[in-house]
Amino acid sequence: MSQYQKPPKWRDPKVKLFPHQVGFTCPPHDFDAAPSDFLRMAPRSVGAHGRMLHVPDYEHRLDQRKKNFGLLEEFMECMANNGADVCGQVGSNWVHASGLGVEGIRQHCEMLSDKYETPFHMAGYAMVEALHALNVEKVALNACYHPSSWYLGTVGFLREAGFDVVWAGNFFDQGWFASQQEVDDCIWCFDEDLIWKSFDYTAEQAPNVDAYLINGMSNYRRAEDGIAQRPVHYDAALEERLGKPVVGHDIALYWRVFKTLGLAPETQQGRLLSSLKG
User: Fold this and answer.
1) Which of 56-60, 92-96, 150-154, 234-238 has the weakest average pLDDT?
2) Which among 17, 111, 128, 224 is placed 20 to 30 Å from 193, CA to CA?
3) Gene3D superfamilies given for it (predicted)?
4) Given 3-state DSSP classes, what are the helix, strand and coil percentages for the chain, each rounded to the nearest 5?
């Protein structure tokens, strides 16, 4: 089999639609907000393209993530062929579901980046990199909608990476829902007041940590217009409220992509994304 070569035409800025071209992928059966969120904070020089992974019988099980892990390479080849400068993978559970471990994920991202001549970042590993950049050790995890089998995998991944996870609990553990099924029935979209209440609860359980984290890619619907927003939209306000850095997997992934591009968001953001502005 011949070695992959990225089409050389993409070295010529004159044939690119945007000076900085970003590709995102997400799990099957999700309409992902990442391309929209990223563009809304990015300079005009940035273009973003999304490509969902295709698994017709996907049911968001951890074993399906492991089974279909190879689709990330297919995504990378497609994006490299289409001229992406950097790619990001949305979905925090894929790193621990893979069974590769922290170092194995780092090596896998490096392999795909080198092979397809396009940097590749996974949300779960971007969280590790972001926490190192913030120089934090003790963290608490607002596991939001993730069932225990999901968020305990995240806790294990973070601990393997060297972080002290002092406390972790999801919306059911926190007492906002009568069962995990009720949480699941919301399809990862909740009333806006829950992001404030759940972080207040998390801070009460672990007041002495260095940073507060939130799992995955949850969404919170504004009462005034029904628009659903991910944690990145609440980051700065949460940090002012709690007095600590707040990092979500969405925030960490966008930070890592911006860092690779050598750019910073143009909008007001929380501590991690604002650090890119120097």
Assistant:
1) 56-60
2) 128
3) 3.40.50.12500
4) 45, 15, 40
Q: List Cα–Cα distances, 83 to 27, 98, 237, 258, in angstroms.
A: 22, 27, 36, 17
Domain boundaries for CATH 3.40.50.12500 within the chain: 8-127+252-277, 134-248
Residue 38 in contact with residue 11, Cβ under 8 Å?
Answer: no
Q: What sign has the CA pseudo-torsion 12, 14, 15, 16?
A: positive
- Give me 150's structure tokens: 């999901």
Find out whether 212 and 136 touch, Cβ atoms under 8 Å. no
Longest CA span, the chain: 57
In terms of DSSP bridges, do strands 189-191 and 164-169 run parallel, antiparallel, or are they unpaired?
A: unpaired
pLDDT in tens, 146-162: 999 999 999 999 999 99
SS3 100: coil
Please identify, in words, the CATH class of the domain defined by 8-127+252-277. alpha beta
Contact 235, 248 (CB under 8 A): yes
Structure tokens given for 205? 């359980």
**Burial of 130 from C-beta contacts in 10 A (0-12 / 13-18 / 19+):** buried
What does the block give as tokens for 273?
């994304």
Question: Which among 66, 78, 81 has a CA at the least distance from the CA of 27?
Answer: 66
H runs (alpha helix) in 5-138: 34-41, 62-67, 71-81, 94-97, 101-115, 123-134
d(CA 96, CA 238): 27
Task: Give 6's pLDDT tier (boundaries 50, 70, 90).
Answer: very high
Candidates 190, 172, 175; CA nearest to 231 is 190
211-214 and 189-191 beta bridge pairing:
unpaired
